[in-house]
């Protein structure tokens, strides 16, 4: 576990060009990583991928990603609540340069890996959007790098948007044991952004409860720019305050031979899934998708 604890408030891990910088060493685990880089108009950021694979994911703004002699033009989006975005996959053992003509904020989810896969463009049109849950447990999932959607060696990453007042990441679930066909071992990072309302900043709550003696135990008020590290334990709910939509980016990776998201629900709360069959999805979903022109990589 990170020396700074599992709840990392905004700015706590800022380092060099990164507003947030979590790597396996600072997190105290073996695989998962996340960086947030903020670029002024016309600015460039170059990084060596080392022993990890990465995705360049626009949070706001667009950019060009240059890697392995190719340029990938990312249209991006105005913000995380404006719909899905295109993205670029950057392999290990490479150098990547991110350039933003108009400026923006970009997430770099990553994972230590073994195999070097080709650099690739991920179009926004190819991102599956899932409406999960029902009623006050309704949320929207952007499965841009889910294990069964986008090829990577270790990295799994998705975005979740939750309307204000709803419970997300519920029922509590875990993935900290290797149970073939039932549960994966995955280290997970939650990165949060919360929509303001009438000029007031929003907040949310994140719970992680131990799955074994001495395990991770968190009840945190989270705000934009915060992250929570989950090396183990039942995680959820993620609770959005009324009037403030909640966004979180999930970054996962682990040591199992199979790259899979296999979870086990908390036995005291798994029954909630049965109630969704007779309930409607929150009418506020899906979140509107801003129009964007089709963009092909060069």
From TrEMBL:
GO terms under biological process: inositol catabolic process
Keyword Zinc: no
EC numbers on record: 5.3.1.30
A molecular function GO annotation: glucuronate isomerase activity
Residue stretches spanning the membrane: none
Keywords linked to the UniProt accession: Isomerase
Protein name (Swiss-Prot/TrEMBL): 5-deoxy-glucuronate isomerase
């Amino acid at each position: 576990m990170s020396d700074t604890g599992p709840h990392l408030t905004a700015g706590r891990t800022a380092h060099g060009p990164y507003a947030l910088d979590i790597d396996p060493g600072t997190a105290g685990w073996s695989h998962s990583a996340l960086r947030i880089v903020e670029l002024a108009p016309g600015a460039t950021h170059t990084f060596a991928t080392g022993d990890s694979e990465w995705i360049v994911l626009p949070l706001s703004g667009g950019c060009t990603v240059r890697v392995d002699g190719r340029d990938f033009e990312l249209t991006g989006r105005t913000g995380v609540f404006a719909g899905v975005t295109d993205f670029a996959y950057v392999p290990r053992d490479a150098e990547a340069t991110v350039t933003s003509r108009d400026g923006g904020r970009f997430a770099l989810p990553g994972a230590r890996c073994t195999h070097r896969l080709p650099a690739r463009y991920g179009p926004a049109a190819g991102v599956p959007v899932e409406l999960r849950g029902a009623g006050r447990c309704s949320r929207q999932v952007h499965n841009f790098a889910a294990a069964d959607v986008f090829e990577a060696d270790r990295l799994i990453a998705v975005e979740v948007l939750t309307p204000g007042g709803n419970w997300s990441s519920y029922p509590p679930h875990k993935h900290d044991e290797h149970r073939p066909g039932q549960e994966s071992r995955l280290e997970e990072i939650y990165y949060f952004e919360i929509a303001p309302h009438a000029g007031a900043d929003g907040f949310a709550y994140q719970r992680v409860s131990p799955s074994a003696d001495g395990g991770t135990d968190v009840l945190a008020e989270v705000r934009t720019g915060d992250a929570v590290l989950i090396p183990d334990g039942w995680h959820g709910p993620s609770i959005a305050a009324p009037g403030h939509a909640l966004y979180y980016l999930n970054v996962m990776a682990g040591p199992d031979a199979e790259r899979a998201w296999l979870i086990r629900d908390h036995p005291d709360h798994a029954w909630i899934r049965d109630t969704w069959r007779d309930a409607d999805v929150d009418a506020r979903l899906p979140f509107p998708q801003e129009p964007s022109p089709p963009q092909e990589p060069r």
